[in-house]
Amino acid sequence: MKKLLYLLIFFAVSAHAQTFRVTIDPSLKEAVLDGRLLLLLSNNNNAEPRFQVADNAQTQQVFGVDVENWQPGTSQLVDVQAFGYPVERLKNMPAGDYYVQVLLHKYETFHLKTGQTVKLPMDRGEGQHWNIAPGNIYSQPVKFHINPMANHEIALTIDKIIPPIAQPADTKYIKHIRIQSKLLTEFWGRPMYIGANILLPGGFDEHPKVKYPLAIFHGHFPADFEGFRTEVPDANLKPDTSARFHITGYNRIEQQEAYDFYRQWTGAKFPRVLAVEIQHANPYYDDSYAVNSANLGPYGDAITYELIPEIEKRFRGIGKGWARFVYGGSTGGWEALAVQVLYPDEYNGSYAACPDPVDFHHYTTMNIYEDKNAYFPTSDFKKTPRPGMRDYLGHVSATLQEINQRELALGTRSRSGDQFDIWEAVFSPMDKDGYPKRIYDKYTGTIDTTVAAYWRENFDLTHIIKRDWPKIGNKLKGKIQIYVGDMDSYYLNNAVYTAEDMLKKLSNPDCGCQVDYGDRAEHCWNGDHTQPNYISRLRYHQMFIKKWVSEIATRAPKGADLKSWRY
């Protein structure tokens, strides 16, 4: 009887709800399509609705539906079943005037080595951003009066396609490499590529016999080598305003810092190394987390054993583990620590700033081992949402539930291309359907303890270091440095506290590790107490390259060449 009542309510709502009928203009000449159809609504015309979906209070609205085998000449309906953010259902949208837009985030078919077939959005050079991904199709925004209780369809036509992104050209100092990975091609069942942007040291051409160490910077997808500029700042640059740092003209500060780095890099006192930014965007995210994963494949091995040796071969790298080190912030901070721990012989130092959760007892603000629900603490009477994002004063701008709701609206089966979905894709086992097994129900927040146990053994870095210290301790001593602000925007400092407690207790040998905290510093703090965060976050290369060079003599093997590249 109860089920029948729910059905009657559903059909009653469906009969009096505004819906959207979407067609594709024949001029686009699209074939059969799979993907995520996104309906976007904005109450302002400051930018296209596709650029206004965010985790902050200014976000506008998105609804999403999965599309499979969309045939040319047919239409798709976005109706009351579409899941949305921040308003969950169309029937609950406030009536009013909106700028309306639709976009299809295209999926491609992959026949995995495991035997499963999955449909995912392959990166197309944009770093996994659905709103600018080349080949995605969309409509121009049109202003409509929306009345959720009106009983009629609004017709929308997709007639535009996002163009390809031009690839950066090589310059005197910056080179680009892209190789087909044998390991990844085998896993994904189609050609797969990884690459890097390489910054050559000053005097590279003038010293053709010198071989260099590798300074490997991990982070999000770098379209080109970031933070390096050979020209003085643009005098006619229109100043922007950084909402995060409350600074007008931050774009000029960035240009000045990039130019100053160029002058340091080519100056007489800067260490001569090959600085490398890895490119490993994939069907789930803008990078792979640089480890072997059940869902993403062997990216750790592909980067370590295919890409890095090829870089050293082409650009005169020393080619030894002692002459490589890793550094990065946020995602890159986690990767820097992870590859040092998982490949202890291949890297000689890791500098991990504001790393993603390094201990899953503090998976941001949830404990996946002990909590029952990701979004709410257990209580008989209260339902207090867990915070997901804050500023340096602790003011919360988004909850974990809200962040995950946005991801679920953008893509099911971990396909949003965003943060919690990529953690799930990297850390989880593969489910029967070929997609990542959920660590928690994306809608309700209920945690799966069996998946949590898998995460612990394979990707909880604090647990792995402690568990494997008798085997890897002598290879890691002195190589681990972690830095984080104590008001990290995503509460990442919480996991660092427990990691620090564990590192201090290691013995035979002692860890010799460094852990440091920035007072009231938000995300991206990198250990520099002399500068505000908005400056220090722009100085990763000059800071960590100098730091590694100052320490290398204590960790290099006897007879290592520590002089020829110090001209």
Written description of the protein model:
InterPro entries: AB_hydrolase_fold (IPR029058), Mycobacterial_A85_antigen (IPR050583). This is Esterase. Residues 1-17 form the signal peptide. Keywords: Signal. The chain is an alpha+beta fold and 567 residues long. It folds into 3 domains: 2-161, no CATH class; 174-233 and 242-355 and 540-554, Rossmann fold (3-Layer(aba) Sandwich); 365-457, no CATH class. It has helices at residues 2-15, 182-188, 250-265, 299-315, 331-342, 400-410, 419-427, 449-459, 461-476, 493-505, 533-536, 540-551; strands at residues 19-24, 33-42, 61-70, 76-78, 83-85, 96-106, 108-111, 117-120, 137-138, 142-146, 153-158, 160-161, 174-180, 193-199, 214-218, 241-242, 247-248, 274-279, 292-293, 297-298, 324-329, 350-353, 387-390, 396-399, 480-485, 514-518. The chain has an 8-stranded mixed beta sheet with strand order 13-14-18-15-21-22-25-26, with helices on both faces. Strands 2, 3, 5, 6, 9, 10 and 12 form a 7-stranded antiparallel beta sheet that branches. Helix 5 packs across helix 9 and helix 9 (461-476) packs across helix 10. The termini are far apart.
